[in-house]
UniProtKB/TrEMBL annotation:
<dbReference type="InterPro" id="IPR006159">
    <property type="entry name" value="Acid_CoA_mut_C"/>
</dbReference>
<keyword id="KW-0846">Cobalamin</keyword>
<dbReference type="Pfam" id="PF02310">
    <property type="entry name" value="B12-binding"/>
</dbReference>
<dbReference type="InterPro" id="IPR006158">
    <property type="entry name" value="Cobalamin-bd"/>
</dbReference>
<dbReference type="GO" id="GO:0046872">
    <property type="term" value="F:metal ion binding"/>
</dbReference>
<dbReference type="InterPro" id="IPR036724">
    <property type="entry name" value="Cobalamin-bd_sf"/>
</dbReference>
<dbReference type="GO" id="GO:0031419">
    <property type="term" value="F:cobalamin binding"/>
</dbReference>
<protein>
    <submittedName>
        <fullName>Methylmalonyl-CoA mutase, alpha subunit, chain B</fullName>
    </submittedName>
</protein>
<feature type="domain" description="B12-binding">
    <location>
        <begin position="7"/>
        <end position="138"/>
    </location>
</feature>
<dbReference type="GO" id="GO:0016853">
    <property type="term" value="F:isomerase activity"/>
</dbReference>
<keyword id="KW-0413">Isomerase</keyword>
<keyword id="KW-0170">Cobalt</keyword>
<keyword id="KW-0479">Metal-binding</keyword>
């Protein structure tokens, strides 16, 4: 299949005990409206659940929504599990309440982009289109 015909597949997840998922649902809807196929896993997901769903669904990207302050833990766990499962090429991005000083550490972990409150959903969609296009090129799927 030609990469121009293929739809970008994105998994949106809410790790941990944080029960506030309005932002995750807004992003999921916006990405769907932008023509992407979106799987929303719902609240209170473990890193194992997120990674297993991502691998089973053959997604291009995982978006984590974290408002609880546990972002460093969850991003680390998800990126490590992806590598352990041979799926380290899946793009990981996120959103939520994440302090600027943590952004370089998240980048080192392999997190592609972090969208904080106020970021436009168009920016998130544009980022994913470009990042997934690069992923497909690396994998020879474009």
């Amino acid at each position: 299949m030609d990469g121009t015909d293929r739809r970008i597949r994105v998994l949106i997840a809410k790790p941990g005990m944080d029960g506030h998922d309005r932002g995750a649902k807004v992003v999921a809807r916006a990405l769907r409206d932008a023509g992407m196929e979106v799987i929303y896993t719902g609240l209170r997901q473990t890193a194992d659940m997120i990674v297993n769903a991502a691998v089973q669904e053959d997604v291009d990207a995982i978006g984590l929504s974290v408002l609880s302050g546990a972002h460093m833990h969850y991003f680390k766990e998800v990126t490590e599990l992806l590598r352990e499962q041979g799926a380290g090429d899946i793009i990981v991005f996120g959103g939520g309440i994440i302090p600027d000083q943590d952004l370089p550490k998240l980048k080192e972990m392999g997190v592609g982009q972090v969208f904080t409150p106020g970021t436009s959903t168009e920016d998130a969609a544009a980022y994913l289109r470009e990042a997934v296009r690069e992923r497909w090129a690396r994998l020879g799927e474009d």
